[in-house]
Amino acid sequence: MATNLLGLDSQGMERLFAGMGEKPFRARQVLKWIHRRGAADFAAMTEIAKELRAKLNEAAAIEPPVVVGDGTAPDGTRKWLLKVDGANAVEAVFIPEDGRGTLCVSSQAGCTLDCQFCSTGKQGFNRNLTAAEIIGQLWLANRSLGVHGLAGGVGAGNRAISNVVFMGMGEPMLNLDAVIPAARLMIDENGYGLSRRRVTVSTSGVVPGMDRLAAECPVALAVSLHAPDDALRDRLVPINRKHPIRELMKACNRYLERAPRDFITMEYVMLDGVNDSDAQAKALLGIAVQVRCKFNLIPFNPFPDSGFKRSSPERIRRFAEILQRAGLTVTTRKTRGDGIDAACGQLAGDVTDRTRRRITTGGTVPIVEHRA
Ligand code: SAH
Ligand code: SF4
């Protein structure tokens, strides 16, 4: 089977080229063609010798996911539904803002972790995405946003996408074999050339994954905290039963030792009457002192039968104020993509569940059945 070059980082590409008896600089040239210039086939790669292009045509391919849905909300937020195989489609979302454009990418078809307020979690889980399927979201978005002229190509500075966040479907820390090469391509100067601070991996708190990412590709880190104590977090974010808040905070500090960015973003979904009281804000301060961090409050985005309600704007303002008065930096995420279900936590894609989610009682981490 032809190797899909889309998913190879510079190391992977050099290894492949070495195996074909080609020099490392050829690998870099091809990498640039694919990611900086958005080339979809080898014929376009004009300065590469014809013989090598023929060889590549035999042994390799550039195969992105297939776009099966593409919608834009009135606020400019754009969502693509990407078919990754016969059974699964995942979503990527582009969020334009003043002076920057953020692409939110998915890392898994579904998610095994079953956070109570998350639509992706409720879909169950099918499989990990490959590195090609993850980077393919950025490759496709760049092409669809019309900033890739094949003639000469454009520099990263001119691109619509200035930031990438792993906040789409799935838990990136449970798929690091694919997430790490994809993140490396994002920051590679021959790839997308984004600074490490402009690539953010968000985790619900998979501690071993945080340590591995710190060692292998320490991009910016966001942690989905969502509760000030273990009793509530155990319920909202079931992975907390395995890695409780104390362990999570220790892992954050280990991450900061390696990360070029000097703080962790703590995400906190605002759920009416569940985690949004004054007392809970004050309890959070006890956690915040343990780690250099900023808070990002996310108004809950509803989906059918979620059982939760969004906190009122007044409640969110008051909650933020308590944190700010204690000296913390707090931002409240603007809700984007209304009308196309593109807001945080609303991405469901089209996932064929292979877990026993639907026959387990709520909240248990399901067992994944392996395909024969
Ligand atoms: N699995 C990773 C990344 C994907 S979710 C994680 O959990 O961090 C990205 C962010 O959206 C997380 O902070 C997640 O908790 C939050 N989120 C999930 N469902 C949401 C919802 N319905 N409304 C608002 N935010 C939600
Ligand atoms: Fe998975 Fe993140 Fe959703 Fe939790 S919030 S179910 S970890 S995608």
Query: Average pLDDT, to the nearest integer?
Result: 89
> Fraction of residues in helices?
25-40%
What is the CATH architecture descriptor of the largest domain? Alpha-Beta Barrel
CATH topology of the largest domain: TIM Barrel
Structural class of the secondary structure composition?
Answer: alpha/beta
Strand order of the largest sheet: 3-4-5-6-9-10-11-12-13-14
Give the name of the CATH superfamily of the largest domain: Aldolase class I
| Tally of structural domains | 2
Q: Biggest sheet: strands, sense, closure?
A: 10 strands, mixed
Uncertain stretches: 148-157, 358-372
List descriptors.
single chain; 372 residues; alpha/beta; DNA polymerase, domain 1; TIM Barrel; 2 domains; 10-stranded mixed sheet; 32% helix; disordered C terminus; binds S-adenosyl-L-homocysteine; binds iron/sulfur cluster
Q: Could you outline the blueprint of secondary structure elements for this entry?
A:
Layout: E1 3-4, H1 10-19, H2 24-36, H3 50-59, E2 60-61, E3 66-72, E4 78-83, E5 89-97, E6 100-104, E7 108-110, H4 119-122, E8 125-128, H5 131-144, E9 163-166, H6 176-187, E10 199-203, H7 207-216, E11 220-224, H8 230-236, H9 245-258, E12 264-270, H10 278-288, E13 293-299, H11 313-325, E14 330-332
Give a verbal description of the structure.
- By secondary structure, this protein is of the alpha/beta class.
- The chain has two domains: 3-61, DNA polymerase, domain 1, CATH 1.10.150.530; 66-369, TIM Barrel (Alpha-Beta Barrel).
- The chain is 32% helix and 19% strand.
- It contains eleven helices and 14 strands.
- It has helices at 10-19, 24-36, 50-59, 119-122, 131-144, 176-187, 207-216, 230-236, 245-258, 278-288, 313-325, and strands spanning 3-4, 60-61, 66-72, 78-83, 89-97, 100-104, 108-110, 125-128, 163-166, 199-203, 220-224, 264-270, 293-299, 330-332.
- The chain has a ten-stranded mixed beta sheet with strand order 3-4-5-6-9-10-11-12-13-14. It has a two-stranded parallel ribbon with strand order 1-2. Strands 7-8 form a two-stranded antiparallel sheet.
- A hairpin with a 2-residue loop joins strand 5 and strand 6.
- Helix 1 (10-19) packs across helix 2 (24-36), helix 7 runs parallel beside helix 9 (245-258) and helix 10 (278-288) runs parallel beside helix 11 (313-325).
- The longest helix has 14 residues, at 131-144.
- The radius of gyration is 21 Å and the shape is globular.
- 47% of the residues are buried.
- Residues 148-157 and 358-372 have low confidence and may be disordered.
- Bound molecules: S-adenosyl-L-homocysteine and iron/sulfur cluster.
- Iron/sulfur cluster is lined by residues 111, 113-115, 118, 120-121, 170-171, 204, 224.
